[in-house]
Amino acid sequence: MAKAFKYGLKGITGYMEATERELLRSLIDDVISMLQPEESVSQDPLAALIGLDMDVQEPSDRALKRLLPNVMKNDDAASLEFRQLTERSLRETKIGALRAAAMDLDKDVIVLTPADAGHWSMALNDVRLVLAERLDIQDDADAGHVHLMQDWSQAEDVESYLALVYNFTTWLQESLVQAMLQSMDSRS
Question: What is the pTM of this model?
Fold first, then answer.
């Protein structure tokens, strides 16, 4: 069974069993697959080099849209322009954090530097956002309903299984953030 992340002399450490690490790796791989930008053969190489993507559109997948939201709710044109200028870079940053976290999943005991902890926090957040969208969590009442699911033996369908996975990643992220805060307190 996983142990919460803790801050100590070695830095921020956590423990996960092989099955928990494989579950998390699978989730991370799924989110990376969602974030991989489509290659365009007609794209200007210079534009790609500096991160411009003039062919980008608002995602149709609700989970991907949650990872890459519009910046202006009531101005589609301005949101699209901003997306063209920033989305490629945002995708690459998210994929980098997800891959960095996945690399730490080769060992039972996970030891994180402050930079590693930042990558993990971003990766866990992105995994949780996708799971929350798949579970249709829109408000505190929805989240409360999902958090009631705590017993793996009760997982009878995809939704209850996803709720348990969501709760697990939420717990991991909460313990990581608490350890990061302790780390910051100890340095001041």
Answer: 0.88
